[in-house]
Records
---
Amino acid sequence: MKDRKIVCRCEDLTEEDIIHAIEEGYDDLESLKRYTGATSGPCQGKGCLMHVIRILCAKTGKSPDEVGVTTQRQPVNPVPLYLLAKGDEK
Amino acid sequence: MRVAIIGGGIVGLATAYNLAKDGVDVVVFERKYLLYGASGRNSGGITAMLNNERLIEMAKKSMKIYDEVQSEIGFNFLYRKDGYIKVASTENDLNKLKEEMNLQKRMGVKVKQIDANEVKDFIPDFNADAVIGGVYGEGGVIFPWPVIWGYAKGCRELGVDVKDYTTVEEIVVKDRAIDGVKANGEFFKVDFIVNAAGAWSNEISRMAGVELNNKIIKEEICVTESLKPYLDPYLLDVTTGIYLSQSMRGEIVGGIVGNEVESIDVKGSLDFLVKYAKRAVELIPKLKGLCILRQWAGVYDEGKDIPNISTTNVKGFIQANGFGKFGMCLAPAAAIEVTRLIRKT
């Protein structure tokens, strides 16, 4: 059986999947995210973003600075609707 | 003939695809990445239950095109046609829904009136006390990401040059006619420019010396963790503007219909989450334990005509913008109109 390195557990993506996508031309982080779904699952990138950046750097020869990071948005951790529903409206 | 399209969203790419099928040489300029604008930030609600004849006709046609174009291009748009429900909690809103429904019916849209309890036939955990009634009709949910990737793939295979991260710096007009466009320092000689820049259409139009004045609308959306398939139809509460649906990835995606803003910003707010959460758990109390994973915002433009597909007093400068919140519903058919307009100009 072939070795499979899981990069993104939420979306079940292997290193090979990411490399494929880069080779197909999705070779910037924002496009790669939206083509593969990486960083868009329950972990919101906490588990996979650094791996994706590492692979993208290795494939394109860019530095992590050049590759950048995806937009980080709230909430930092998942928040249930019932808690939010108790909040005050402006 | 060479056409430059400004904006790599659903309108720009669908237009590029149609023009290319027609044998036209097309180049698409996208300032950011594909999916940066409203086409990548919307909730994918698809319906022909709209409020005037032109929109209904265009939406019906678009739904048909979505069915066909997926196999034509070879890309799965994750289009789920499990119905569309609009509910209202005031008499006034409900009457408006009924009036619209009569028009929709006359135009061959499958739609029917339902009372508050009947919503439960489609959404088992719905709280009938939260509304006074609504309408149910054909429609569903599409995943905007593969729609854009698919159209972009279709375009490229037909020889369209889709340029992302490419900023249009100048629109060159000579004797009140389009001469070309300068982007990322390079000049492209073209016969037509299509302004499909969504919320940025006003700026682009100004570059050609044409006043546009589309309204800019900001809308916020959020997404929960994934569930097994649970919620069939797309749900819109017209009284509060709150909508939600389940994507093919299982998440509940929902938001609040947007408001006009002075300038473009895509920040998310806690106010939005609170307002959304309150109404969402009123409508479907069982959602209350679900966690919000992420929230975001997007901007779109609304024309005096929705959509604005027109020529201008600069020959070769074509407007294809002002779609309001209906871009995903209308773009595939609108693209054919834009293509026709270019052909006859």
---
Amino acid sequence: MYKLVLCWRYLKTRYLALVCVISVMLGVATLIVVNSVMGGFSAKLRDRLHGLLSDVMIEAYDYDGFADPAGKMEMIRKDPYLASQVVAMAPTLEIFAMLQFSYRDMPITKPIRLVGIDPADRAKVGGFAEHLVDPKRKANPTFELDEAARTRMAQAKKPEPLVFQPILNADEPPPPDPVDSRPHEPVSAILGYAIAHFRDREARDEDGTLHDRRTLQPGDEVVLTTVSSAKMAPVFDRFVIADYFKSEMSEYDSQYVFVPLDHLQKLRTMEGKVTSIQIRLKDFDEAPKVVARLKEMFRRQPVEVQTWEDKQGNVLAAIRTEKGILNILLFMIIGVAGFGILAIFSMIVGEKTRDIGILKSLGASNWGVMQIFLGYGLLLGVVGGGLGSLLGLAITTNINEIEHLLARATGQDIFPRDVYYFDRIPTDIQPLAVLLVNVGAVAIAVLFSILPALRASLLHPVRALRFE
Amino acid sequence: MQTGYIETTSGVVPPPILRAENVRKTYRRNGISTEVLKGVDFSVNHGEFVSIVGASGSGKSTLLHLMGTLDSPDAGAIWLGDRRIDNLPGRERDKLRNGRFGFIFQFYHLLPELTAVENVLAPELVASSVWQWPFRKKAATRRAEELLERVGLGHRKHHRPREMSGGEMQRTAIARAIMTRPGILFADEPTGNLDEAAGAEIMALLRELNRADGLTVLMVTHNMEMANTTDRIVRLASGRIDPTRQPVQPVHSLSRPPESGRMEYAYRGVG
């Protein structure tokens, strides 16, 4: 019982111990904040990385795509296991392209990724409709122009006559070369948000909020140039902007342009062909089995089957590695706190030498004396860890407010909102991580108190009593 | 087991309770050996108040520490009744010091973080586990408070050592030493740091415990005046019992059984 009484009294009366508590507390709080913020970023990034990609995809090896996506989807629907796992499928045609438009009479050309989709199908697969900017389109994804866009299009200055890509009928054989064009109404497109906007660092509100400048309005025309399938000959067409796609993942928002699948197939003279089939699963945990089944089903076809995690494997692995290394580095902070405990405990043992002699004269065993200091370390770890957890959770919960205050006080942007397309610092508090950090901190506190505790326990009672 | 008194021609002689047998002790420091005790034979009888006197460095404190199991002799043996205790395992020695022996020191050695009553409770705290304590706490606290009352510190229960005078601290230390009803009290220069009046009070208290409660007291002192009030004085000189001057003053008859009916500190055997 004396161990408990003395541990508690030492904690209450020794201000040096407070230093240990504070160092453990700061270490734990830092780890929790960094972990939660990194967790938030990585969860958001993971979400975004997954965003456009479906759970599983069947992809062609090259831009020529593969034929008969409808037949393949039918095969999947007929397979009992796959039919039970697959929620939705969407054939997609993806190709690189150049986008041209004029902004303030200045021609601008951007490299983009052109994606042909059926908006309704693609929406069912997920990661598309929810990112559309127009709220009406979120519920009913379509390439239809709204009234304002139509008006703007009608009023727009007609561009110089362009050469139009000929659109062939399905029963006609593909021409050897791009043929003469004939005029047609431009097809609409959904543009990545960052293609049509840029963050203007000069245009700030009084409270420091950044604003985006829009370079292309719905109803504006752009020209997309890509290549045809067989001959790799350049093909191009006019498109009119219907809406924006804003996933908050700059890689997607600055590159992706969605157009109707059938039009892109015609433009590229690859009717009936797609480059991938996007598949959404009921339960992603089943993905490895589904992939194995699909691989088996299409083993003779020139396609590759993978999950979105396989496809983004390198990025996901990089995030994991980064988080792991950061955690190790940060744990060294608690290690430093551990050395603090070692130093301070050694001082306390020195200071308490006589008390140790007294306790031994009263019949306290070596192990009992050791337990006092081990218990003391444990208590410091628990109190420091508990306070650190409270502090860490408080900071994490209010990180955006703290960031605002700091930014205002220092005049420095701590979280530049023009780098990320989200306005708040994302956080993700993982109870398991908080627990592990606490367990680690307590373990380090106990570990570093072993040596001083051992020294105390081995003190000779007579020498301890005579110590001055 | 020795519990009774032995009839001799000179009266009733109590049995020896603690005995040192040819005890030797050498300290080594920085390669230099100092032989402090060079073969000491010495015993303390049950209910006796014995003082060990001698010059500084004569080995009197060392002898006290060896007999109280705070240290181990290099050679020889220490006997508690008929049980040899110098070679007991650490755990057994801890138990002896907790339950059978009480110690007081020149510098009181109270735990500064604890109040007077908590200091008195300390041996009981050492003896009890966390689980036993709730059951023992009430009785132990009552006894600790009674002991403080007995040593005249009923009003100081909740004071910390730094708030007390030397005499008060030593009285608290005495209360702590007898908390677990030990058979033997070891006192290492108990009045060495006190003024005359406080020293006399402490001696009176020890004498009362010895007379009234039958507590065996072994005291080391260099103060002959204090030593003269004890039953027997043993002189140590150069690590040996001085044979020329033994016994110095058989003030009280060894045939004296404890005066009062209170036998709570009487020798309880060593089983």
